[in-house]
Amino acid sequence: MINWLISQQLVLSLALLLLLVAEKKALKKLSANHVYALWWLVPLILLANNLPQDLFNLDNPVLYQYAVKVSTSHYTAGNMLSFKLVWWLGVFCVLSIACIAQKQIHQGAQRQLATAQVPVALPKYLKVLESQHVRSPLISGIRPARLLLPADFTTKFSLQQQQLILQHELVHFQRGDNLYNLIALLFVAVFWFNPLVWLAYGAFRRSQELACDETVLINKSTQEKMAYSRALLLCVQAHTPTLSIYSQYGAKHPMLLRIERIKNKTKVKKSSLVFSIITSLGLLAGVAMANQQGNAIETSKINEASPIVRIEPKYPLQAAQQKIEGSVVLQFDIEKDGSTSNIKIIKAEPDNVFGKTSIAALQKWQYKPQIVGGQAQVQRNILVQLDYRLDENPGPIKPLIETVKVVQ
Predict the structure, then answer these.
(1) What is the pTM of this model?
(2) Are strands 307-309 and 340-349 parallel, antiparallel or unpaired?
(3) What is the DSSP letter of 127?
(4) How far is it, in rounded angstroms, from Cα 339 to Cα 366?
């Protein structure tokens, strides 16, 4: 998992940078709904970067026969576990904060209101609750979803403002934005260590609100747009940003951007829309081709057996006392998770001296999984020679068998 996360960072960062720029620049040429749709590029680019690679026969045993010598240049088990622990801790913190924020919203819901008390037509299966913990209407949850209204909703907003704001929330509900928010939140939790992910998350939520505003105000009069803008300003005065899945009103700067967007509606040109579609498709095709070509060119590198956790074998006490030196050649497989399996002794000098300690050590080794097209692969028939020497500087050691390294 950790290796896969690291391998995605270059493509992911470039995609997020592109979308962050698009959020600022594309709004001058495209509608807010078109810009919101561009965020689909993130999962699609990751998918294109992880397409399966079928151009090579990964089961060829000759391709994977490498002599791996014991060295001190690899990570220790403690370092690897520490890195995984920090990542899992970050994931836990992000999800915990989100769960707490979501729980606080639901705890504030006091009583259920009849749909007749709401000045717009609502779906029958959408429950309406009054809450002391919200200062503006919002859709909370996914299944079931609930419409939460502040206790002072009818006094704080005019009837026209109530209708417009509720239409805004219904757009979120009908589009399933809370589900998208949950996916985005999980994405943030997985890639929390990348600062661009946090910037992109904020930009995604802004694009979502702008697209929702645009949908609500289609064919609305200037007077209705002004009433809607005043209602937004009333909402931002009490805004408290949280990391949660419900659709929330933005902070001061995003709110000003939304009102400016309402005042100056962008005229979308077909040429700009066609250009954005062609550019997006070209980007996806480029990533997919680069993924295939990269796998083809770097085959010899990704096939190298590189241990990231190595337990040093114990020198047998009796052999050390008798000053016996020797070597053992082991053949084994590397599983998708990097663990070793099917270990057997190919050759040993001398016999029946170092074999048991060699197998016991190799069983605890952890290798960097072979990643092809974003998927871990099983590596078979790997060779490793363990040399037991009492002298700290034994000089060059001759392999017990001939080793073959295949270079493209």
Answers:
(1) 0.64
(2) unpaired
(3) E
(4) 5
SS3 376: strand
Domain membership flag for residue 122: yes
Q: What are phi and psi of 379, to 5 degrees?
A: -105, 130
What are the tens digits of pLDDT across the range 186-233? 999 999 999 999 999 988 988 888 889 889 988 888 898 898 888 888
Q: For residues 186 and 93, what is the distance between their CA atoms, to the nearest angstrom?
A: 12
Both structure tokens of 358: 């060699």
Is a pLDDT exceeding 90 seen at residue 1? no
pLDDT at 373: 67
Contacts of 351 (CB under 8 A, 6+ apart): none
Whether the bond into 350 is cis, omega within 30 of 0 = yes
Rounded to an integer, what distance in angstroms lies between the CA atom of residue 287 and that of residue 293? 10
**Euclidean distance between CA atoms 130 and 118, whole angstroms:** 11
**Token duo for residue 302:** 């990704």
Tell me how many domains the chain contains: 1
Angle between helices 159-175 and 195-216 (to 10 degrees): 120
351 domain-assigned: no
Closest CA to 215 of 257, 164, 264, 255: 164
Q: How far apart are CA 173 and CA 251, in angstroms?
A: 21
Q: Is 71 exposed, middle or buried (0-12, 13-18, 19+ CB in 10 A)?
A: exposed
| Selection from 340, 336, 315, 331 nearest residue 382 by Cα | 331
In a domain, 104, yes or no: yes
Q: Return the H-helix or E-strand segment holding 347.
A: strand 340-349
Best CA proximity match to 57, nearest among 375, 407, 299: 299
Q: Which structural domain range is residue 47 located in? A: 2-52+77-280
Q: Which amino acid is at 45?
A: I
The residue count for the chain: 408
What does the DSSP assignment read for 58-91? TT-TGGG--EEE--S-SPPHHHHHHHHHHHHHHH
- pLDDT digits over 226-236, tens only? 988 888 887 76
Instruction: Return all residues near 268 (Cβ < 8 A) that are at least 6 apart.
Output: 29, 30, 31, 34
Residue 358 located in a structural domain: no
Spell out the residues 6+ positions from residue 39 whose beta carbon is closer than 8 angstroms to its own.
Answer: 19, 204, 207
At 266, phi and psi to the nearest 5?
A: -80, 135
Sign of CA dihedral 121, 126, 127, 130: negative
